[in-house]
Design a protein that fits this description.
CATH topology: TIM Barrel
Number of strands: 10
Strand order of the largest sheet: 9-8-7-6-5-4-3-10
CATH class: Alpha Beta
Order of helices and strands: EEEHEHEHEHEHEHEHHHHEHH
Helix content: 25-40%
Number of domains: 1
CATH architecture: Alpha-Beta Barrel
Shape: globular
Structural class: alpha/beta
Number of helices: 12
CATH superfamily: NADP-dependent oxidoreductase domain
Strand content: 5-15%
C-alpha cells in the first residue's frame, strides 16, 4: 500500500480510505468487521465516518473495531446534519459542534478525533463562530485536524482567510464529490487544494454505483442506490451519465480491469487527490475497490478515460483559453 502525506500535517495515510457509511446499515456488524479487517490486512490505515451515518451506529461499530489498533489508524468523522428531531441538533453552531463531537468521541470510544470535517457549509451560522469552535476543539486536544466536506472553493478560501486572520487552526483536508461523471471539482476545488497544499479525499468515486458495470442505457438492477434512493436518482439521473458509464465499462473490459477498480484508480490519479473514499455493502463488493491501489494510470490513460465524459468549463467560462484562439498566456 502506498502512503501519502495528509496535506501539511506531516502524517501519512493510505492511498485509499475506507468509508464506513454502510456500517450498521447495509453491512451488519459481522460484515463490517470483515471489511475492516480486510482493509487493515491490505495496509489501509484511514477510515471515514460521520455522526449521521446509520444514526450513529457506524461510529459505534468503528469504535469497537479500532479498539486494539487506535494509535495505528487515522479516523475521520463529520458534523453538521441533523442528529435528532431537536431543532438545534443540526448545523455548525458552536453548541451543536461541541455536543456532536462529544457524542462522536463516546461512540468511537476514543479520546480524540484525528480529522473532523464540517459536513456541509452552514448558510445560517456566522462562519467566525464555527471556525472558532473548531479551533477550541483542537486546542483542547479533542480533535487533531479539521477539514471541510461539500464546500465550494470560495467557502474554503473565506474560511482559510478568517483562520489566518485570527490565528485559528486551518483546514488541512477537503472532501468533495468527484468521479468520471461528476467533475466539477476539477474547475476550482482541486486546483485550489494544490495551491493551498490541502489534502483531498473525494467521495463517491463510483458515482453511487453507476460506474460499477451494473448500469447501462437499457438495463439496471432491481435494487441499488440509483434505483431506490431519490437523492441518488436525482444526482445521477441524466441520460448522458448512463452513456458515459456504458462506454467506460467497455473500456475497462478492453484494458482487463474491473470497472470498479479502474474508476477509483482514475480518481486517485488526479495530482491533487490524496485518497479516494471507498466502501461497500459486503467484503465481496469491497475487494475490487481495494484492487484500485494496484493500478497505475499514466497521463495518456487518464486522458483516454477522461475523454469519455464532458470536461467542465473553466471557472471564468472562457473555454477559448484552452485553445490557440486566445490572447495568450504569460
Amino acid at each position: 500500500m502506498e502512503y501519502r502525506f495528509l496535506g501539511k500535517t506531516g502524517i501519512k495515510v493510505s492511498k485509499l480510505c475506507l468509508g464506513t457509511m454502510t456500517f450498521g446499515g447495509d453491512a451488519d456488524e459481522k460484515e463490517s468487521e470483515a471489511m475492516f479487517n480486510y482493509c487493515r490486512e491490505q495496509g489501509i490505515n484511514f477510515f471515514d465516518t460521520a455522526d449521521v451515518y446509520t444514526q450513529g451506529r457506524s461510529e459505534e461499530i468503528l469504535g469497537r473495531l479500532i479498539k486494539d489498533c487506535r494509535e495505528e489508524v487515522i479516523v475521520a468523522t463529520k458534523v453538521y446534519f441533523p442528529t435528532s428531531e431537536d431543532v438545534n441538533a443540526r448545523g455548525s453552531s458552536r453548541r451543536h459542534i461541541f455536543l456532536s463531537v462529544e457524542g462522536s468521541l463516546r461512540r468511537l470510544k476514543t479520546d480524540f478525533i484525528d480529522l473532523l470535517y464540517l459536513h456541509r457549509f452552514d448558510d445560517f451560522t456566522a462562519l467566525e463562530e464555527t471556525l472558532r469552535a473548531l479551533d477550541d476543539l483542537v486546542r483542547q486536544g479533542k480533535v487533531m485536524y479539521i477539514g471541510a466536506s461539500n464546500f465550494a472553493a470560495w467557502q474554503v478560501e473565506k474560511s482559510l482567510g478568517l483562520q489566518g486572520l485570527h490565528n485559528w487552526v486551518s483546514f488541512v483536508c477537503l472532501q468533495p464529490m468527484y468521479n468520471l461523471v461528476k467533475r466539477q471539482a476539477e474547475v476550482e476545488i482541486l486546483p485550489m487544494a494544490q495551491a493551498e497544499n490541502l489534502a483531498v479525499c473525494p467521495y463517491s468515486p463510483l458515482g453511487g454505483g453507476l460506474l460499477t458495470g451494473k448500469y447501462t442505457t437499457s438495463t439496471k438492477p432491481q435494487k441499488g442506490r440509483l434505483v431506490e434512493n431519490k437523492m441518488y436518482r436525482t444526482r445521477y439521473g441524466a441520460k448522458w451519465m448512463y452513456e458515459v458509464a456504458e462506454k467506460f465499462v467497455a473500456l475497462a473490459q478492453e484494458l482487463g480491469h474491473h470497472p470498479i477498480s479502474l474508476a477509483i484508480a482514475w480518481v486517485a490519479s488526479h495530482p491533487a487527490v490524496t485518497a479516494p473514499i471507498i466502501g461497500g455493502r459486503n467484503l465481496a463488493q469491497l475487494r475490487p475497490s481495494v484492487e484500485a491501489a494496484k493500478i497505475e494510470i499514466n497521463e495518456d490513460l487518464r486522458q483516454k478515460i477522461s475523454s469519455l465524459s464532458p470536461e467542465p468549463p473553466p471557472a471564468t467560462d472562457r473555454n477559448e483559453e484552452r485553445s490557440p484562439y486566445t490572447f495568450g498566456q504569460r
